[in-house]
Amino acid sequence: MARFRARLALLGSAATLTAAALAPVQLAGAQPAAAADHQWVALGDSYTAGVIAAAGDTFEEPRDGCERTDRSYPQVIDRDLGSLFELTNVSCGAATIENVTSRAQSPIGRNVPGNPDPDYPFPPVPPQSEAVQPGTDLITVGVGGNTLGFADILTKCLELSQNGGGGTPCKNDLAAGLPARLAKVRSEYDQMLTVLHERAPQAKILAVGYPTVIPKDTSTCTPNNWEQFGSITQGDLNWLRTEVLEPLNKAIEKSTGTLDAASFVNLYDSSQNHSVCDSRKWMEGILTLPAHLSLVHPNASGHRNAADHVEEAMLDVVGVN
Q1: Which of 109, 265, 293, 315 could make an S-S bridge to 320, C-beta 3.0–4.6 Å?
Q2: Which helix (H) or strand (E) holds 208?
Q3: Helix residue ranges per DSSP H, the chain
């Protein structure tokens, strides 16, 4: 039903744009296009913004370095439900929870070793929460992985596995510090939800979790395949799934449960058979051939799945379903 309404909304929007292009002045008796019913602000990190080429093209000019792409889930939902929700999308690649709550961010664009971004450096962008206003009706937020330091953990796992062999070199080196990392996520997430609620007391907040990245059966991952996890050992992949990524989602879900206005959107279960190592994958690995550094991010199919689940939650919390 949501998809049917979405297509009607999209057709209606297209018709309005076409009419506007053909008529530079409003005809007598014509009614202006109706404003969207709900004001929606999308916050988050690269799993929200899109960032990688497999999640579409950047579309904003001038670029601000946050790398929001046209096939990321906020933009997909905007095309589906634009007549109901007016989107303000300030998600940004590499954002931490603090970058949502209170700290300005210096975006990195697609500035990677050996392939510098021609527009780098970018001016700082304000804390994402500043986009939330008293009249905001709905907030979606997908963040936490950078506060946990998942990219740094992944990079360390790659470094420690370069000498070959099996075992769990990454777990052995990093496991002791993981509880403190998770506690930091939980504490800062609680604070972020409080700030968002204070800025928009009537808004519903949807906390969007992270999808499945690593399969339950890690023997399906091919060693030294850089379209998957490169040299990271099977043992460390199991550790990353059960002790890093799954607890990250649980921490976010627990924080969400502390605020009546907030709900958790679970992307993990629906993406179980679409990990980096699955044939029908919704996640890209370390690299996306021929020459794109993806560093384990959702592709357009992953964002379409996220859009489906977030859309359903959005319609539910505003009473449209």
Answers
A1: 315
A2: strand 204-208
A3: 2-22, 46-49, 73-81, 97-101, 145-148, 150-160, 169-174, 178-199, 234-239, 246-256, 300-317
Could you tell me the pTM of the whole model? 0.89
How much is the pLDDT for 11?
Answer: 28
The angle at the Cα of 41, spanning 36 to 43, to the nearest 5 degrees, equals 155
Which residues, 6+ apart, have CB-to-CB distance to 58 below 8 Å?
A: 67, 68, 69, 70
What digits encode the pLDDT tens for the residues 236-262? 999 999 999 999 999 999 999 999 999
pLDDT of amino acid 41: 98
CATH superfamily of 36-317: SGNH hydrolase (3.40.50.1110)
Q: What is the pLDDT of residue 238?
A: 98
Contact 229/276 with Cβ under 8 angstroms? yes
Listed in sequence order, the residues at least 6 apart from 302 whose beta carbon sits closer than 8 Å to its beta carbon are 55, 211, 271, 274, 282, 283
CA dist 78 and 68 (Å) reads 13
Instruction: Measure CA 200 to chain center.
Output: 21
Residue 296, sorted as left (phi over 0), alpha (psi -120 to 50) or beta, turns out to be: left
Residue 121 is given by DSSP the state S
Domain boundaries, the chain: 36-317
**Rg of the chain taking only CA atoms, in angstroms:** 20
HSE, CB side, 13 Å, CA atoms: give it for residue 161: 22
Cis peptide before 121 (omega within 30 of 0): yes
Do 84 and 38 form a contact (C-beta atoms < 8 A)? yes
36 burial via Cβ count (<10 Å: 0-12, 13-18, 19+)? middle
The residues annotated with a catalytic role in the active site are 46, 297
Q: Which residues of the chain have pLDDT under 70?
A: 1-34, 291, 321
By the 10 Å C-beta count (0-12 exposed, 13-18 middle, 19+ buried), 68 is classed as: buried
Please choose, from the candidates 296, 291, 142, 134, the residue with its C-alpha nearest in 3D space to the C-alpha of residue 214: 296
Q: End-to-end alpha-carbon separation of the chain, Å?
A: 8
